[in-house]
Write a structure and sequence with these properties.
The protein is an all-alpha fold and 316 residues long. It has two domains: 23-161 and 296-312, no CATH class; 170-276, no CATH class. Helix content is 70%, strand content 0%. It contains 13 helices and no strands.
Length: 316
Amino acid sequence: MSINLTLPTTPTRVGSLADPDRMHRMRLRLAYLLSAAGTMAMLVYGLSYYWSSAAQRALSPKHDYLKPSGAIGLRLGLFGVLLFFFIYVYPLRKKWAWLGRQGSSKRWLDFHVLLGLVAPVVVTFHSSFKFSGIAGVAYWIMIVVAFSGVVGRYIYAQLPRSLNSAELTLQQAQDQSVRTATQLKNTGILSSRDIDGLLRLPDMKRVQSISLLGVLWRMLLFDLGFPLRVWRLRQKMLWSQRRWWSLVGLGRGENAVLERAITMAREQTLLTKKILFLSKSHQMLHLWHIIHRPFSYSFAMLASIHVILMLMLGYY
């Protein structure tokens, strides 16, 4: 049996349409790269200092630079305060109408998450990996807030959304799923068995009986294994080049028809998963807000007390 993957008379380029979020993704990637580079630079420069004991640190030539009140340490602390200022601007978008009109919520959230990951790293270097007193309590609350923020961002991504980032209702999501499934069927490239191979989830009745933590775990397992299933599907479609040991199909191929079908199958599968877990995702997001906010406000209060005390004691 052979599969016709020849291009149609009028070739269609995948991704030929302008992507309005392309520049945003590029800026976001650049910000992550710069953050990673800065972290590596601090580790390379200060590893010997951070690894030594308190007595050895006092004798180190880097002590006057890397201690919390040192030339570098103090500036890292000020930079951390600045980062947290921008982090706490994000929740104000819902309260201040003029701020809510600036940019899209998704783009704000992407950078909110980025700053929420970078700020704890900056504060860790500022503290020189020593945590005690009020600052120590604030630090560990900050770590809990950062971790919960990552979880919250993942749950937020499970809600079906339209191209303009507006959240879809269940009916809208189901309609979009039907349209995508119809378009995928019309390509005549992937069979229903191929698509079912991507979707390994319990039925709706079973999902409703699973706890929120169990649903979150199942979604994580599905998303971790999904790229492998897509790779196997691409290998199957490229059967003439397939070898059990090869990396054929690991990346995008040159055949636009095949890649369009696989892209549609991926979108259809992920949307089906989101529809299946929609009610549970809403419940998890509501619970997340209840847990995340008190920790976030507690950290802000303790961090403010720490900054005020340091200013009063003259550590500036």
